[in-house]
Design a protein that fits this description.
single chain, 8 helices, binds flavin mononucleotide, Flavoprotein-like_sf, Rossmann fold, Protoporphyrinogen_IX_DH, two-stranded antiparallel ribbon, Flavodoxin domain-containing protein
């Protein structure tokens, strides 16, 4: 379907987000329910915040469905033992998943392999669904590390989402600074927020269903 494209979504406001306190414990308003003992972690690695926004939306959807979830940067998480399920996300740069996400997956592989895990990547920019080689953009931008991590963690699912890029934001690291100044980067890195909130929410709802009501897969 060459030339296929979708409309960028700039008009959506983020869903209310679970508040993560300084002590690392999520909190939310409203009465406690029987599901409050369930905890789902949405851990993420980000450079410029786009992936954090996706993680927060996923956590908000899970929480809205009665499965309390908290979005936290991987750097802040030392232990996943207290979580019933983990969703791990990271941005893709130069075909690779951000290193902190990969390191997190490797460091916690034993604990992660023992609980339901999902992976997501915040990747391609633009509105084209098919690249110049006729490949599905969401498949061709799958981070290189996903094969290894699939072997390691046996995730229940994985997903690539469109990302966001603000050329006015200060580059992070020398590599990003150099790439941004390459003439080819102007075409390869269209500016804008291309995050597909409908797709993100639908994916989160699918996870909620698969977790059942107690943060574990239904019997
Ligand atoms: C220098 C640079 C390189 C990028 N390389 C890739 C890439 O290889 N694959 C991809 O899917 N997206 C790539 N992107 C897009 C980012 O993954 C996208 O902007 C992402 O949503 C950023 O997430 P963050 O704000 O959480 O860091 C690149 C962006 C920049 C600025």
């Amino acid at each position: 379907m060459p030339g296929a494209e979708r409309t960028a979504q700039h008009d959506r406001q983020p869903s209310p987000v679970l508040v993560v306190r300084a002590d690392g414990c999520g909190s939310r308003t409203g009465p406690r329910t029987e599901r409050d003992d369930m905890r789902i972690l949405v851990a993420y690695a980000t450079r410029h915040g786009a992936t954090a926004g996706i993680a927060e939306r996923i956590a908000a959807v899970l929480t809205e469905t009665g499965r309390p979830a908290e979005a936290r940067p991987v750097e802040d998480v030392t232990n996943v033992e207290g979580y019933n399920a983990v969703i791990l996300g990271g941005a893709a740069y130069m075909l690779h998943w951000l290193k902190p996400a990969v390191k997190f997956a490797r460091r916690h592989r034993a604990a992660l392999a023992g609980r339901p895990v999902w992976l997501f990547s915040s990747g391609p920019l633009g509105t084209d669904l098919v690249d110049k080689d006729g490949q599905d953009v969401l498949q061709s931008t799958r981070p290189k590390e996903f094969d290894e991590l699939t072997e390691l963690l046996h995730p229940r699912g994985e997903q690539v989402f469109f990302g966001a890029y603000d050329p006015e934001a200060e580059p992070v690291g020398l590599g990003e600074r150099l790439v941004r100044h390459m003439p080819a980067a102007q075409d390869a890195l269209p500016a804008g927020d291309f995050r597909d909130w409908d797709a993100i929410e639908a994916w989160a709802r699918g996870i909620a269903e698969s977790l059942g009501t107690h943060g574990r897969q239904p019997e």
